[in-house]
Design a protein that fits this description.
With 126 residues, the chain is an alpha+beta fold. It is 48% helix and 24% strand. The chain is built from 3 helices and 4 strands; from the N terminus they run H-E-E-E-E-H-H. It has a 4-stranded antiparallel β-sheet, covered by helices on one side.
Length: 126
């Protein structure tokens, strides 16, 4: 009877360990993240290489995948943006800029979101 109980507990331990390992692989592999490829034109792409981090208001929102220099229309670059629940505000700000919103309104949006987050954090512990 004791041997069966021990075998059962060892089996449960092995299954839990395998489940944790599979969960860790899934979480760290990036499954479930929505990725968008965005294209941008700029006058100069000096010092810009592939795998350069892209920042918006100091928050990393993606990486440059490739730079396609075009003589007539200027360099074009594409970067991959990760849509992560932790960076919803930055993702929305990038979308606002790409849809033609003025930078001042995007900056105001980010400041308001930061202020709301601070208020939520301060009321969380009260």
């Amino acid at each position: 009877m004791e041997a069966r109980r021990t075998d059962f507990l060892v089996g449960v331990f092995i299954l839990v360990t395998i489940g944790i390992m599979v969960g860790t692989v899934i979480i760290t592999s990036g499954l479930g993240r929505v990725q968008h490829v965005l294209y941008m034109r700029t006058e100069t792409a000096q010092d810009l290489t592939s795998d350069t981090r892209v920042y918006l208001q100091g928050l990393a929102v993606g990486r440059v995948r490739q730079v396609y220099p075009q003589v007539d229309s200027g360099p074009e670059m594409a970067f991959q943006r990760m849509t992560d629940p932790a960076f919803v505000d930055a993702t929305q700000a990038v979308d606002m800029i790409l849809s033609g919103a003025e930078h001042a309104s995007v900056y105001r949006f980010l400041e308001n979101q930061r202020r709301r987050a601070k208020q939520a954090d301060s009321t969380l512990w009260k």
